[in-house]
Amino acid sequence: MISINRKTFLSLGIGLLFSALALYFTFKNIPLGDLASYLKRINYFWIVPSLAIALLSYAIRIWRWQIILLPVKRAGFMKALHPLTIGFMLNCLLPGRIGEIARPAIYCKRENVAFSRVLGTVAIERIIDALCLLIFFIYILATISLDTSRDVSFAGYRLSPDDLGRLFTITLETSIALVVVIGLISFSKTRKLINRVIMKLPDVLPFLTPHARAAIRHSVFHKITHFVDNLSVGFEIIKSPGHLFLCLAQSFVLWWLLGVSVWVLALGCPGIQITILEAFAVEIIVCFAIMLPSVPGYWGLWEAGGIFGLMLFGVPSEAAAGMILTYHFFHLIPIILIGLVSATIIGVGITQAAHNVEEAVHCEEELEKEELCGFIFKSDSP
Questions:
Q1: Half-sphere exposure of 249 (CA within 13 A, CB side)
Q2: Which among 314, 316, 308, 261 has a CA at the least distance from the CA of 282?
Q3: Do residues 106 and 118 lie in contact, with contact meaning Cβ atoms separated by under 8 Å?
Q4: Contact call for residues 198 and 190 (beta carbons, < 8 A)
Q5: Contact 192, 66 (CB under 8 A)
Q6: Which has the closest alpha carbon to 110: 342, 368, 377?
Q7: 3-class DSSP state of 51
Q8: Closest among 280, 290, 287 to 313, alpha carbons compared
Q9: Mean pLDDT (10-residue bins), the chain, 382 residues
Q10: How many helices (H) and strands (E) does the chain have?
């Protein structure tokens, strides 16, 4: 049963309001009459195969997460499906991308594993996605001829191929930094060094008494090192070349499928003639656009990125707006519905999912106590 309390209802209302405002500012420069007329001329038959291909990419996401979860706890397809789809559903309905945190929170609560370990798997998943998009982006820039002098202006934004290059550089630098951090945490020698540094931090606070330092070290910094240790378990997949290669292959396939999904929908949109590679370029530009802070469902940023991408390939703004709005709407609603079905099946309401993080942290503290007791027991054993 899906339960929504007053606080969550208010959050949903605010999210819908900001989404409506984002859409208004995105489409305010396009005559609504022309947009409505274009939407009537779309052949909606092509939505069915486009959506089917997109849903197949989500099945691959679930399979990939199952593999990344192996070092934490082996998960069946359905056990991975429900937290993942609920997480995507929450990203569509609530602000702050809470679904990225709710997914590991739901999984760890149901499977009785540490929250930070599952959170590590989500971080690895995002890094793999970023690396795949960067590789695809390099391939597209090397394959598709773009006029670097051409700028596209839409809804107060301005985009040029040079801007795409800067987005690529920022994403690359961020990904490299995260890969370095994950590498340092994943290997025991560097992780132990990091933990020793963390445990020494209270000593650099001269205004604290020795008793206060000891108390802070135990209550705060010990938990931080435990969190780091658990994260490393979620990163274990990088130590398995076979599993890591499979996850990378799955990522390439799922992102390519999303590009094909865009191309298939374009077949039913009058005035849009793009190749599969150009459709994939549009999908990547949308992905870069929604990396920015956005309203629930990425309304506005999704449309702006998609319209920018299509206009770079000579698509008129009205046709670009109509296609991207159609693509976004008909691909977002099924994800919300599937997430709601998953929430109903496992008995997690929207309110409960949003508050599961607090419960997951409490569960992690209990697991930490159990692990400590187990360590003491083994130490005392002959």
A1: 8
A2: 308
A3: no
A4: no
A5: no
A6: 342
A7: helix
A8: 280
A9: 51 58 56 72 92 95 95 91 90 78 88 88 90 85 67 60 72 84 88 90 78 83 86 87 93 94 94 91 86 72 84 84 88 88 79 56 51 36 33
A10: 15, 2
